[in-house]
């Protein structure tokens, strides 16, 4: 470790004096007039532990690198925001959480304030760091659209890691719609300028659509709740990210009463056997789409679960042929499933077993293309009058499977397990052997002609 704290490598910018480590770094000459700490930054890390000093040094180094990049490279990062982020990291390096001055002024933070003041005396602490410790760095005026970019790129990227490209696009589409609706109504305001009146304008706009004074509703309560909820989440997440988790959320407690969601009707058993499984009924569908439809009948799976099966999840060589409905862990092509309880093993019986004997590699045409599959199936079923009513959808196959299990007397917990529903008790064991699951499903299997596959 060099005496000047400028050594490169693992102990760069570290200087030990009087038994304590210091962060010592020179401000680039080109930025000397823009960084008030110039020409030299020197700050006590208040520790004699080298590992702790390195960790604190990393936070300070990253903060300075980002700040200088914003000032030097034609503003690739907003300078005001870079200064704010740098302040947060400097405070974190000293063992505190950044809080604005108006928050620290509240009585419950008195002990915290005293600890902060004590940490900057009697040792010399750079003025910018001292100001950051007592919350005197102004929150940058980040707009709603910019806050959403920060939300996606900095706050929740870990939540998107296991989503497929299609899942990410769908996730962002729903969130972006809420952002766009707010901006269209109120403007791309700075987050710190959003008021309760702005939130109420959004609420009233949705109220006009959900419960108009004249005419029919054009949107459901769930649509309005989703939009307002997404703005509420963005507001909370953004201000928590910048060190103001206590800030009052203007979108809080704004929601619409929802009627109980009407379940999609199931296909009647007779409709399945005499319409869907009738030889030739699905002949006009391409082979993979037809296979997916037939697989839905005896698995109760979601269409996206069948469409995205990997060859390794189609286990025909096992003693009991089955599907493993599970997340896709491929780092180049990940995919998550709806919930943890959705991960399950489903024995293959009847027409589903026949389908996978033919499609051992799955359905690559529709892998990561669930929307294309849905459009193709809906168009075909409507054109050939394969839906009993206008309320029936492709998802009705799943409801039919559940009803057939119930009518066949299958154990309720087994039904929940095979459907991928949550079991309302601690789960013990594997939920019964695959042999038992298969034998239970054979009780409700539908007759079919091999030619339909």
UniProtKB/TrEMBL annotation:
<dbReference type="GO" id="GO:0003677">
    <property type="term" value="F:DNA binding"/>
</dbReference>
<feature type="domain" description="DUF6538">
    <location>
        <begin position="14"/>
        <end position="71"/>
    </location>
</feature>
<dbReference type="InterPro" id="IPR011010">
    <property type="entry name" value="DNA_brk_join_enz"/>
</dbReference>
<keyword id="KW-0233">DNA recombination</keyword>
<dbReference type="InterPro" id="IPR046668">
    <property type="entry name" value="DUF6538"/>
</dbReference>
<dbReference type="InterPro" id="IPR013762">
    <property type="entry name" value="Integrase-like_cat_sf"/>
</dbReference>
<dbReference type="Pfam" id="PF20172">
    <property type="entry name" value="DUF6538"/>
</dbReference>
<dbReference type="GO" id="GO:0015074">
    <property type="term" value="P:DNA integration"/>
</dbReference>
<dbReference type="GO" id="GO:0006310">
    <property type="term" value="P:DNA recombination"/>
</dbReference>
<protein>
    <submittedName>
        <fullName>Integrase</fullName>
    </submittedName>
</protein>
């Amino acid at each position: 470790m060099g005496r000047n704290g400028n050594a490169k490598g693992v102990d760069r910018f570290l200087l030990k004096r009087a038994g304590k480590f210091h962060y010592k770094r020179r401000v680039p000459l080109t930025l000397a007039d823009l960084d008030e700490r110039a020409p030299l930054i020197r700050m006590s890390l208040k520790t004699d532990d080298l590992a702790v000093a390195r960790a604190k040094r990393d936070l300070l180094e990253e903060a300075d690198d980002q700040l200088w990049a914003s000032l030097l490279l034609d503003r690739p990062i907003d300078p005001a925001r870079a200064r704010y982020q740098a302040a947060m990291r400097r405070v974190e390096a000293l063992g505190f959480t950044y809080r604005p001055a108006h928050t620290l002024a509240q009585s419950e933070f008195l002990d915290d304030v005293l600890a902060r003041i004590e940490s900057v005396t009697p040792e010399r602490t750079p003025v910018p760091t001292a100001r950051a410790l007592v919350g005197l760095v102004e929150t940058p005026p980040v707009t709603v659209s910019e806050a959403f970019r920060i939300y996606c790129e900095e706050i929740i990227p870990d939540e998107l890691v296991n989503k497929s490209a299609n899942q990410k696009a769908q996730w962002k589409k729903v969130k972006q719609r809420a952002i766009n609706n707010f901006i269209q109504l109120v403007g791309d305001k700075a987050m710190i300028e959003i008021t309760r009146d702005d939130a109420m304008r959004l609420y009233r706009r949705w109220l006009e659509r959900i419960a108009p004074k004249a005419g029919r509703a054009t949107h459901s309560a769930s649509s309005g709740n989703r939009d307002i909820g997404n703005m509420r989440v963005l507001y909370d997440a953004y201000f928590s990210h910048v060190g103001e988790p206590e800030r009052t959320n203007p979108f809080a407690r704004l929601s619409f009463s929802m009627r109980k969601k009407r379940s999609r009707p199931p296909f009647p058993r007779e409709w399945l056997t005499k319409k869907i499984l009738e030889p030739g009924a699905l002949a006009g569908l391409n082979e993979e789409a037809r296979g997916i439809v037939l697989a839905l009948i005896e698995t109760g799976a979601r269409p996206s679960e069948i469409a995205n099966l990997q060859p390794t999840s189609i286990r025909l060589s096992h003693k009991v042929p089955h599907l493993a409905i599970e997340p896709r862990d491929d780092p180049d092509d990940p995919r998550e499933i709806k919930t943890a309880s959705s991960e399950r093993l489903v024995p293959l019986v009847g027409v589903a077993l026949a389908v996978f004997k033919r499609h051992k590699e799955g359905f690559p045409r529709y892998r990561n293309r669930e929307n294309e599959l849905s459009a193709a199936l809906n168009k075909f079923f409507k054109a050939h009058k394969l839906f009993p009513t206008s309320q029936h959808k492709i998802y009705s196959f799943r409801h039919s499977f559940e009803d057939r299990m119930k009518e066949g007397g299958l154990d309720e917990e087994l039904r929940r397990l095979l459907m991928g529903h949550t079991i309302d008790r601690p789960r013990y064991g594997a939920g019964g052997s695959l042999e038992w699951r298969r034998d239970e499903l054979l009780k409700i299997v539908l007759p079919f002609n091999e030619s339909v596959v």
